[in-house]
Structures are given as C-alpha cells and as structure tokens.
Specification:
Number of helices: 5
CATH superfamily: START domain
Structural class: alpha+beta
Helix content: 25-40%
Largest sheet: 10 strands, mixed
Number of strands: 10
Radius of gyration: 17 Å
CATH topology: Alpha-D-Glucose-1,6-Bisphosphate, Chain A, domain 4
Distance between the termini: 17 Å
CATH class: Alpha Beta
Shape: globular
CATH architecture: 2-Layer Sandwich
Length: about 230
C-alpha cells in the first residue's frame, strides 16, 4: 500500500471515530456464540445497564449489492430485525450518502421505541472496506405523533469487507439505549441477537433481483470494478 493510501485510510478512520464515538477501547468484545458460520459478540458499556452487540457473517453477495441495500433506508423494515417502520427525513448529501431518518423499533409487550438517526458512509476501496454508520441526532427534530418512547441514544456500524468478487464479510454492531421502562434483562436479550438476525435477513435480501440490478448501475459497482482492475478478485 502506498504512503498516500495509508494516510487517506487513517484520516477516514479518525473522522469516523470523532463523529460517532466508536473509540477502540470503548468496547471489550466477547465471543458468545457461533451460528451458521456467523460469530456473535457482546460487550458491557461503561455507565450503562444495556450491552452493545455485534455479529460477523460472510454473505455470498457482492459488496455493491449490500451497499445498495443499506442505502435503501425506506425498506429497512423488510430485513432489519424488529424494525417496524422508517421514514427518510432529509438527504443531507446524496453523493456522500449522508441521510437523516426516523426509525421505529418494536419491543414485545411494551411501548415501541423510536429515534432520529444520521447515517453516514465512509468508503475505503483502497482496502476493500465500506463503513456505514448511524447515530442519534438532534439536528432535525421529528415527532412521530404516535406515543412512542424516544430512545436516549443509539449507535450502529456496518462494516463491509471484501472477501472476493462474490462474497463480503459483514459486521453489524449496535450500542442502543432503549430508555425507561424496559428491564435490562429483557433489553439485553433482544440486543444480543439483533445484529445476527438482521444479517441473516440481509443475506436473503441480497438475492432479490431489484437490489442486484440496481447495484449494477450504482457508484458502488464502479468502485468495486475499479478494485478488481487494481488486481483483486
């Protein structure tokens, strides 16, 4: 890797950490399970009763197809575990994939939660990696008017890593605060399985022709093809 590429990657990662609080020492990940080739992890979070969780799976899909799925925020409810609804509120920067959207999280037997999130994407195809992360924002206030409980905070990160032209290693990490009224035991049971269940659903979505076809004319496809031309397979 050239010196310029290294500097570029370090700067991007620094900006991501500053913007989202994903400091490397914030989480102490522990492997808790393996299912269908996926790895499930949890971590305690300082000052919170709720845990953070993540899952890593190799999905048999092209990286640009998964990028297209993640960009389709209005249809998150089709595959994101316990997501009941989303609404795009603002396109901050379409070219750079910066969006503000509303998200409704279902909680069994209790009042559903909601949140306003700002989603950003960091593309580093020098290393075959795309980062798509979202965190709570007050930049654009929004009242759903349905009596939901607004979550105090939420952070998430999707990491898409090139395996080969037809496979992508995907890690989905969440650090939510579900707010008052949800016992920590119930909350943590839900949190620890959400990334894994979401990724299994995402793998099904990646087989849909609408995403496969849409990805062929996406900017993600050009980046992937340029990556192949640079000597990767």
């Amino acid at each position: 890797m050239s010196r310029r590429s290294i500097i570029f990657t370090v700067v991007l990662m620094f900006l991501m950490v500053v913007s989202t609080g994903f400091a490397a020492d914030k989480y102490q990940w522990k492997l808790i399970d393996k299912e269908d080739g996926c790895e499930l992890y949890t971590s305690a979070v300082a000052g919170k009763d709720y845990i953070a969780a993540k899952a890593t799976c190799v999905i048999p899909a092209r990286i640009e197809v998964l990028g297209t799925i993640l960009r389709d925020i209005p249809n998150y409810k089709e595959w994101m575990h316990d997501c009941k609804d989303t609404k795009m509120l603002k396109t901050v920067d379409d070219e750079k994939d910066v969006f503000i959207f509303w998200f409704r999280q279902h909680i069994d037997l209790l009042t559903d939660r909601d949140m306003v999130l700002k989603s950003k994407t960091v593309i580093d195809m020098h290393n075959g990696t795309n980062l798509v992360y979202a965190d709570s924002t007050k930049e654009l206030p929004y009242d759903a008017g349905k009596g939901y409980v607004r979550m105090p905070s939420f952070y998430s990160l999707f990491t898409l890593q090139w395996v080969d032209r037809e496979h992508t290693r995907v890690t989905f990490m969440i650090d939510p605060d579900l707010g008052a009224g949800v016992p920590s035991g119930i909350a943590n049971s839900k949190i620890k399985t959400t990334p894994y269940k979401s990724l299994k659903n995402m793998a099904k979505m990646a087989k849909k022709s609408k995403y496969i076809e849409a990805s062929k004319t996406s900017k993600y496809n050009k980046m992937a093809e340029d990556y192949v031309k640079s000597g990767h397979k």
